[in-house]
Write a structure and sequence with these properties.
By secondary structure, the chain is mainly α. The protein has one domain (about 75-300): Orthogonal Bundle (MetI-like fold). Helices cover about 65% and strands about 0% of the residues. It is built from 13 helices and no strands. Helix 3 (about 75-105) packs antiparallel against helix 10 and helix 6 (about 125-135) runs parallel beside helix 11.
């Protein structure tokens, strides 16, 4: 081993040790607990049960009541809720973020002030923004209902965060409002690095702006766009705080992280909750691999 390699490992050692302590060790313990019947009230009495928490009679991927399908179980519903939330919110945030970034990339008076103002929703802590929206969406005294009624768009007040018909999509709207600036910021950073000569040549040749966008801008920012989407997708798949604050333990909106929290904290089933947490980890990992494959981006590819 060369001296440069030894020096590199020496500098990496503190980071690797820290990562082992704060990530690998807890993950390993969670995986181990998923193979036991550990209970939060008496962790010392935990017994090894193998795959019982996954495929047993009452496991995650079993049919708990033998009368309903897997996707109607609480765990199945939480998977569907999380996938719906993630796909719709990330798609909308990417589209709106791209539009906002293209606007902010233009030269106009007060651009710096507008850029700062756009970031405000993203800068607000999630808990704070969720409580703020919860008050505005309240079915009795919320300002949203008052405005919609005054405009004649609704006849009666709507329980946006309690009615299963609207709850999940209400959460999606709030998340799009909060996280679109994040996507816009990442895409804007990519737009700022594009060479100006391509656009000058297109302008001289009289190329239509839409064609310039599809043929020049989009291909050039594609790597940055893919990175932004994967960051946001990973964050969306493990969503908990926004949904929990807005809708609490409502089954119609419960995410996979919410299911894990309910089983571990509310019910005290540490082993069962750890199995759900491990499954969540594997689902996120699978989603990442599938996305990278679909985007034809290799994990080892240089930026």
């Amino acid at each position: 081993m060369s001296s440069k390699t030894r020096t590199a490992w020496l500098f990496l050692a503190p980071m690797l040790v820290t990562l082992l302590i704060v990530a690998a060790w807890p993950l390993g313990r969670t995986i181990w607990f998923s193979f036991t019947d550990a209970n939060l009230n008496d962790m010392g009495a935990a017994r090894f049960v193998g795959l019982e928490n996954y495929f047993g009679e009452y496991g995650l991927f079993a049919n708990p009541n033998h009368t309903e399908g897997f996707w109607l179980s609480d765990w199945g519903i939480s998977i569907l809720n999380t996938l719906q939330f993630s796909l719709v919110s990330v798609l909308l945030e990417t589209m709106f973020g791209l539009g906002v970034a293209l606007l902010l990339n233009q030269e106009f008076k007060g651009r710096a002030l507008v850029r700062a103002a756009v970031l405000v929703p993203w800068a607000i802590p999630t808990i704070v923004s969720a409580k703020m929206w919860g008050w505005m969406l309240h079915d009795q005294f919320g300002v949203i209902n008052a405005i919609l009624q005054s405009w004649g768009l609704i006849d009666a007040k709507v329980a946006w965060t309690a009615d299963p018909q609207y709850a999940l999509w209400t959460v999606v709207v709030v998340d799009v409002w909060k996280t679109t600036p994040f996507m816009a910021l990442l895409i804007l950073a990519a737009l700022q690095t594009l060479p100006k000569d391509c656009y000058e040549a297109a302008h001289v040749d009289g190329v239509h702006p839409l064609r310039v966008f599809w043929s020049v801008t989009l291909p050039l920012i594609r790597p940055a766009l893919m990175v932004a989407v994967i960051f946001r997708l990973l964050d969306a798949l493990r969503v908990f705080d926004l949904i929990y604050v807005l809708t609490s333990n409502n089954n119609s909106t419960m995410s996979m992280s919410g299911f894990v929290r309910r089983e571990m904290v509310d019910n005290g089933y540490m082993g069962y909750g750890s199995a759900a947490s491990t499954a969540l980890f594997l689902i996120i990992g699978l989603a990442t691999v599938v996305y990278m494959r679909l985007g034809r981006m290799k994990l080892s590819e240089d930026a």
